[in-house]
Design brief:
Helix content: 25-40%
Shape: globular
Strand content: 25-35%
Low-confidence stretches: 1-8
Oligomer: single chain
Number of helices: 10
Bound molecules: N,N,N-trimethyl-histidine
Distance between the termini: 50 Å
Length: 322
């Protein structure tokens, strides 16, 4: 009984967003955050080791190589908040570098309890680091961390993996502004951003030959089947990856292979798809260096330093709140 109530409660945001997104006139859409249930998160872990998808390895490489340089630019004592810690694997380098000089409080903020547990297990062994996890939406969690920090402490926010790129411009600037409003001047944000690269490389990265990304995308329909009792017939849909030239973003869509009607009883909904019609499930923006300084400045940050991976163009940007 209790489980039932709990499930209903956590589903209410999904129900609202499915209703909104699938009844929209024009382009149907679903928020990309719903790609990450336990199946989707496991599939993303696989994507991140595919040879065609270099993003996660570039991010890790930069943090491994330059953590000491990054830390040298901070002003201790530092409290670290991480938005979307995931497994916590690439955060190790930053925490190890920081904890050489000081005791560190590390506050991962995650909507997934499973991810929080994983990250506590992965990073729990580092001396001089205490971990306090927050099972919250990003900004709610950040508000709590900011409220608890000591007066003279600098807050370092980690927002890695180019998740910022999933906020379709100008939502990226809006999100940075909301973050800035929670921070004090002098606080730091380490922002990971995937950079523009040849389009054929991007198409391979978001439509890999093994079909892992296709499974990752289509799992969204399978999730709605599981959680909202819907009757999507998965083989009647296909994964589409395309580069949207006008905005400079990779997009994932799910395309209906035929005209069909799907029932989603828990959302009290029945949705008709035309043959070839798509649901837009994700945008992943590919930044230029100029754009990064631009969005930082619009949100009240200055770019203190940048580190760039040459193998897979990707940047770690150390931003300081003005
Ligand atoms: C986890 C947000 C960085 O945008 O590239 C991977 C997710 N989507 N393959 C990205 C993703 C398709 C990913 N991020």
């Amino acid at each position: 009984m209790l489980t039932q109530a709990f499930t209903t409660d956590t589903n209410s945001a999904l129900i609202t967003d499915v209703r909104l997104g699938l009844t929209k006139s024009g382009q149907k859409e679903l928020p990309s955050k719903y790609l990450y249930d336990s199946v989707g998160s496991a599939l993303f872990e696989v994507i991140s080791v595919l040879p065609e998808y270099g993003l996660t390895r570039a991010d890790e490489r930069l943090l491994r190589r330059y953590s000491e340089d990054i830390v040298a630019r901070l002003t201790p004592p530092t409290t670290v908040a991480e938005l979307g810690s995931g497994s916590g694997k690439k955060t190790r380098w930053m925490l190890e570098a920081l904890s050489k000089h000081q005791h560190v409080s590390y506050c991962p903020i995650e909507i997934s309890r499973t991810a929080l547990n994983m990250c506590e297990r992965e990073l729990g062994d580092i001396d001089s680091v205490s971990i306090v996890g927050f099972e919250r939406e990003y900004l709610d969690g950040l508000l709590e961390v900011a409220a608890r920090r000591q007066k003279r402490e600098q807050l370092l926010v980690l927002f890695l993996g180019s998740t910022i790129g999933n906020f379709e411009h100008p939502a990226d600037v809006k999100f940075l502004c909301q973050m800035r409003a929670i921070l004090q001047s002098g606080d730091a944000l380490l922002l990971g951003t995937d950079l523009m690269k040849p389009i054929h490389q991007l198409l391979d990265a978001y439509d890999d030959p093994l079909g892992v990304t296709a499974a990752f995308n289509l799992n969204l329909l399978a999730r709605i089947n599981r959680e909202l009792d819907a009757d999507f017939i998965i083989p009647q849909f296909e994964h589409v990856a395309r580069f949207n030239q006008a905005v400079g973003s990779m997009e994932m869509h799910i395309r209906s292979l035929q005209k069909q009607t799907v029932a989603i009883p828990t959302a009290d909904l029945s949705v008709t798809f035309l043959e070839g019609e798509t649901i837009w499930t994700e945008s992943s923006h590919k930044y230029s260096l100029g754009e990064i300084s631009g969005i930082a400045a619009s949100a009240g940050f200055r770019v203190d330093a940048q580190w760039i991976d040459e193998e897979w163009p990707f940047a770690e940007n150390l931003l300081i709140a003005e």
